[in-house]
Fold each of these.
Amino acid sequence: MRSYSFTHAITRKPSASIVAGLRAVDTGAPDLGLMQRHHADYVAALRSTGATVVELDALEAFPDSVFVEDTALCLPEGAVVMRPGAPSRLGEAAEMAPHLRALYSDVERIAGAESFIEGGDILTTETEILVGRSARTNAAGIEELTRLVTPWGHRVREVFTPPGVLHFKTDCSLLDGETILSTARLAASGCFAGYRVILVAEGEEACANTIRFNDLVIMPAGFPKTRERLDQAGYQVAEIGNSECAKLDGGMSCLSLRFSPS
Ligand code: GLY
């Protein structure tokens, strides 16, 4: 199965506590009503590809819990429950575990007290799993993940999230088996050697966090130059409003776990 073909996704509704979500720079509180509308559009886009989308209830105790991607890595052979590096988000992973057990026979977890890793730092391509070390993901977390997924036949490569950037995938996305959408600053690190790279337009770095989900490339609305590049490259693009998640450094990948359990 291709690394962008998925039968399932899990999302979680935003909670009213989202106003207390983590952010690098405070640009104002997110508007819950608008975020809920954007979220519904996002779920509809996932469903339009024919996938089954599990929509979990909001979790008031965890302001950032709408960003489910950080709680797990889902591979065809099994799922690995993460250990988020943000203390306020640690409990989100345990909340996700039973939903993964309902769909997978093999669910492992990052367990080391000193191991931290968030799904936003993990890009799974056709041939390897790239994990960006960041303020949320450390060497011990990457080492533990490697030990868990190597027996499943996966190769992990440690890379680096640019300084000041929340997650590795804040700055890149998989567009197809050979192609990555990236910011110029991340591509300049050389970590995508061997891949075809499409750069986001200058000034549109905030749309590098996009997802390929079955036939669709789902990108945040309002980045016309990059949209044109994707259109010209032949992708079928859907734009989803992201103004409220962006206030919390969140984007298209953060809002779902995408997978095909075997
Ligand atoms: N607000 C998303 C995060 O910082 O994890």
Amino acid sequence: LHADLAPDLPRFLQGDPIRIRQVLLNLLGNAVKFTDRGEVQLRVSLTKMSSGNAAIVFSVTDTGPGITLELQERLFQKFEQADLSTTRQYGGTGLGLAISKELVVLMGGSISVNSQFGKGSTFTFEIPMRLGDQPKFRDGENQERRHSHRLSVLCAEDGLTNQMIIRSLLEEMGHDVDIVEHGVDAIKALAQRDFDLVLMDGRMPYMDGETAVRCIRSGGTSDIRVRSRDINIIALTANASQEDREKYLAAGMNGFLSKPINEKDLFEEIGRVITVLLRSGHPLIEMPETASEPMVLGPPTRSGDLHSIPAPFDPLEAAPSDSLSSWSHPQRAPASRLPAYSGDPSNMMQRIAKAFIEDAPQRLEAARINIMAGHAQGAALEIHSLKGAAAYVSLTTLQKKLEILEKLADSGDLAVVAQGLPEVETLLLEGISSLKKILNHPAHD
Ligand code: ADP
């Protein structure tokens, strides 16, 4: 894989890095996938430049099998119209290029293919961009792990453990977060007040993430209108396969974060969103140097009648001063000194472990009730949520078992799911008792 960047490319441009990256990933991914021998070449060049505007051309050339004329004509068509036999014949979802085209067009550009059957293909897209200035980041911002601006984030996520994690991470980074449990409440929240970013779980009760995003992009429901249909929405996905990504992109998501959420990825993704928002002229509040305005910690106060989670316990008071053994860390800064992202996960992990101990048995019970009532979907949802929570507290065996049961519940095989419950229950009880031990007797190191 070679990359050839023209020497006259402007150093700074104003564009949408998330979308450009997605298109490049699609094209480069295909090129590498289809090329058994030879090479893949990425070229980036400048074609036009006039009074602050530039047109940038990206091309991806491979020495793969090439594409027949007949297929070339259909390549960028939306999957709904695609001939099923193509998918069957060539594998894949047949979605990548249609989405690439959509993204390129959204950026005001165009995309085309030039291919000789048996010799290889070249995909080219051109995007107009404004010339940019060097971003005004504070010195050493990355080392400091501090975002330049504070975002108001809405998170739609039904699992208590996930909610805890996302709230902790975002607040420790200095952002403001409101949490709702499903798509319907997310839409209500977006109708009530302005947010800068939405983190949207895929699988939720009442309305899943994909449906919610489609609804938001179309302005809301007939009686609940969202304030901004263009808001940045990042999908939280447990199994972010290429297929999932394409599905979510097609629904209108702007990016992805894989669950379990990793703080570094979240930090970077939010940094990217801030850059994109600033570039587009979206007004943002600067991150205060010190946390003299403590908007963090404690139950949310300004969400009106939004469905927000109650704080199940006071994490800072309840937590022992030492950390869980596997997450042990030096003393954290006092809470009032937040919101610089401290990078210290120990307290958060204690919060998560406690949330898990409280929440997990209820989830299992809810799954059992759903199974008894013959509600496969409800059972799958509860099992899914418990699985995600198990991943966070590193109960891997339990997580794997639940993954199998979730699939079975998805396929409606509730009798088999029921047979698996006793084992899950044992694993859960064992897991909870080991978490309790660690919480009560934190390792000293
Ligand atoms: P997917 O890769 O998921 O099938 P795409 O829309 O990305 O979806 O591609 C659709 C089809 O176009 C592929 O299945 C393949 O047949 C063909 N194709 C795409 N890129 C190339 C390439 N670089 N070389 C040969 N065939 C390609």
